[in-house]
Design brief:
Layout lengths: L7 H16 L5 H9 L20 E4 L2 E3 L2 H11 L6 E5 L5 H8 L3 E6 L2 H13 L5 E4 L12 E6 L8 H5 L1 E12 L4 E8 L5 E9 L14
Parallel strand pairs: 3-4, 3-6, 4-5, 6-7
Antiparallel strand pairs: 1-2, 7-8, 8-9
The structure holds S-adenosylmethionine (SAM).
Length: about 220
């Protein structure tokens, strides 16, 4: 069991990571401040804890990963989070990304497909004082009962943009989703200008674990 201790060494390593993100082009200070405040090593297995401040994705069990810090920073910046935003995250995983959104003042709803990760993260985040709404299920369909959302963030690679996610956005709402094949995905930002007018912007390519479920990939 990992001790939840944030030493000067951890804080120093986190500062260096934040500077690395800045050099890589992350400019949203709200995102960088939240990432500086949340100890990423708390989300790591004790065997990997020394790697927590590398700008890399790492395994979190169940064949899943905690996203690379640059990816977290990039996706969060695209969302343009405002205090009080109602945000749906699809793919809770370790809970790190949900924690960043929470620290930025969002009201976070997060859904996870994997039962063990869901159970673990639901118990773990409150220990850090991070209170969000946790759901277990297929997020490729969104979370219709709690819609609409101001922002939706998909943290797994999707084969298509599920139309249900666009339906579940408010007007002026933003969906950030990586879309492509199983290995590489293009980061997309879709802004719902009106019910029928969706602005789609395309960014760099990334490599996520697959989004599973009804509108995702079939389990191999
Ligand atoms: N956001 C996470 C974090 O901060 O640790 C990282 C997410 S990990 C890259 C992708 C997550 O999406 C995995 O935990 C996986 O189980 C989950 N996932 C895959 N398909 C899903 C689906 N249809 N609905 C909800 N979660 C899904």
């Amino acid at each position: 069991m990992l001790k939840l201790e944030d030493s000067y060494i951890h804080k120093g390593k986190r500062r260096v990571l934040i500077e690395t993100l800045r050099k890589k082009g992350i400019a949203d200070e709200r995102v960088l401040t939240a990432m500086d405040a949340l100890p990423r090593h708390f989300f790591f297995d004790s065997a990997l804890v020394n790697h927590a401040y590398e700008d890399k994705a790492f395994p979190i069990g169940e064949g899943q990963t905690i996203s690379q810090p640059y990816t977290v920073a990039f996706q969060t910046s695209l969302l343009n989070i405002n205090i009080g935003d109602k945000v749906l995250e699809i793919g809770t995983g370790s809970g790190y990304q949900a924690g960043i959104l929470h620290l930025m003042g969002a009201r976070v709803y997060s859904i996870e497909y994997n039962a063990k990760l869901y159970e673990h993260t639901k118990k773990f985040l409150p220990k850090l004082g991070i209170r969000i709404k946790h759901f277990h299920g297929d997020g490729s369909l969104g979370l219709g009962v709690h819609a609409p959302f101001d922002k939706i963030l998909v943290t797994a690679g999707a084969p298509v943009v599920p139309s249900s996610l666009l339906h579940q956005l408010n007007i002026d709402g933003i969906l950030v989703i990586p879309v492509g094949d199983r290995e590489n995905q293009q980061m997309l930002r879709l802004t719902k200008k009106t019910e029928k007018n969706i602005l789609q912007e395309s960014f760099d390519s990334f490599s996520f674990v697959p989004l599973l479920g009804d509108k995702g990939w079939k389990v191999p």
